[in-house]
Known about the structure:
Blueprint: H1 2-33, E1 35-41, E2 47-52, H2 60-65, H3 79-95, E3 103-107, H4 112-120, E4 136-140, H5 146-156, E5 160-164, E6 169-173, E7 178-180
Parallel strand pairs: 1-3, 5-7
Antiparallel strand pairs: 1-2, 3-4, 4-6, 5-6
Helix pairs in contact: 3-5
Amino acid sequence: MALKNATLKKWLICGAAFCAAFNAAAQNAEARATVPLPFYNLHTKQAMVIHHASGKAVSKEINDFMRDHRRNEPANMDSRLFDLLVDLKAAIEKRHPHIKVKFETISAYRAPQTNEMLRSKGGSQATQSRHMHGDAIDIRVPGLTTKELRDIATCLRRGGVGYYAADGFVHVDIDRVRYWPSHDYLATLKCK
């Protein structure tokens, strides 16, 4: 019986050490897979760092931050948009390691009523704007021209990219690949 207890005790100690090592490795892998995405909302003046991992659900706090500020209506954001923003951040940092990427947000979620109100005032919002589906965002990045932000987003080939030079922002979404208002720049675009 003493031999059995000694063997069991040795196995439990070894098993506990293995479990601790396994849990630590799993936590380290999760930490490496989580990417901080800093945001600043230009309308609400709120800042938030979203710690995003691919496949991670969007929290209530993120949906509140990305809300329709005109109606104070919370969003239901698609987590795949944040996957795209993780890749966009990485692409920007690869080209410009000196830039500390912060996404200044002009518009994320937009309620259908807000979208229609903006359209009725002569805005160019699409009748089925991706903003209403929580899978689009209008952004700029301090230290980067909107033209270059457009080009880097285009090179990802991951969805829609709208270039609003006069208003100083770029639209990105996770719908089908398309570009507006012009495709002319595609002929000279250099993806690195």
